[in-house]
Amino acid sequence: MFSFNIEFGDCATRVVVDPGLLDHVGQFLLTAGLPTLKAVSLITDDTVGKLYGGQVTASLSAAGLDCKVQAIEPGETSKSLQCAERLYDGLARQQAGRDGLILALGGGVVSDLAGFVTATWLRGVPFAICPTTLEADVDASIGGKTAVNIDAGKNLVGAFHQPVLVAADPLCLKTLDRRDLRSGLAESIKHAILFSEEFLAWHEERADAILALDPDTMADLIGRNMRFKADVVREDPREQTERRVLLNFGHTLGHAIERCGEYRHRHGECVALGMLAACRLSHSLGLLSATDVDRVEVMLRRFRLPTVLEDPPEWSDILARMRVDKKVRQEKVRFILIDAVAQPIVRDDIPKLAVKEAYESLLPS
Ligand SMILES: NC(=O)c1ccc[n+]([C@@H]2O[C@H](COP(=O)([O-])OP(=O)(O)OC[C@H]3O[C@@H](n4cnc5c(N)ncnc54)[C@H](O)[C@@H]3O)[C@@H](O)[C@H]2O)c1
Ligand SMILES: [Zn+2]
User: Fold this and answer.
1) pLDDT reported for residue 235
2) Does the beta carbon of 306 lie inside 6 Å of ligand 1?
3) What is the number of the ligand closest to the CA of 145?
4) pTM of this structure
């Protein structure tokens, strides 16, 4: 079992990762530092609720915890104020009080939305997460960022609210769509390129076990990613310094590709393309070696992530998207580059032309 605590000033998150853990969530909640805990409001989505809701509610009952369930429709459109309001109404019917806890069971959509509801219900009640997608395991469940989307943009309304417990069961990944799985792997590769050459080699050596979802290998992968993210978040819990900006590696172009493509591509697929372009850009600016650029490209292919952008948007649309994201200042673009593996740098002075060339390197020949 992988287990550690993340301390953030006056609050702490306990992180546990273990195959089969969903059967024991209740027990873990009893030891999460909430001595008067009696009731849990479970928030999930219809798909995850059908697959794992019974297992989690059984574990809560076995621990003597009263459990009420609300399920949202799966998908990004549920990350809305309307959906949050329905959940508030449900919590009111449940008479959910400050001595209860809200448990999110699902992917990043459920944890972002349920986290936002938790941060605002009665001005904030205790929160816990059982992530069920790889994206949520390695990224969304750690860091305390919660959000809903509004018409003006994604994640524009939110709050920081740290969970008391994050309990990840790698066995959940067996039912996940393979494309969603690979998309989550892009974030794991991102952490490796940013923080650890050894972890990059670890992915190369264990590619078969990872793709076969070997439970212990996946527990290791999830736990190590959570630690990387936790280390960054602990240093910058409210995203006020350059440190947390590093996590946007691959996301500058990635987000623009994702939005211009009207979300046809998965987030992680766009991040994979964004990382490859950022590595090529780093090389063209005299940083990352050609060998390391090749190494990244081979790894992305190995995990069946895209290295070519089919049906590409116009460069002018991509640039406009990066402007909206405030990553373009006058004629220069802000980019996270890689000097060498595990040596990221933030640069604000990248000429637009160099970024355009890196983007065009992704287009089909
Ligand atoms: N808060 C953060 O720091 C942070 C970080 C990264 C991403 N996010 C957010 O996360 C969201 C994306 O999350 P996601 O990629 O997990 O998508 P998701 O939550 O939409 O889940 C993807 C799909 O998989 C289904 N699903 C989930 N677990 C399953 C399982 N074990 N088996 C079968 N089906 C399963 C869901 O029902 C859904 O249809 C975005 O809204 C993004 O903004 C937040
Ligand atoms: Zn991401």
Assistant:
1) 86
2) no
3) 1
4) 0.96
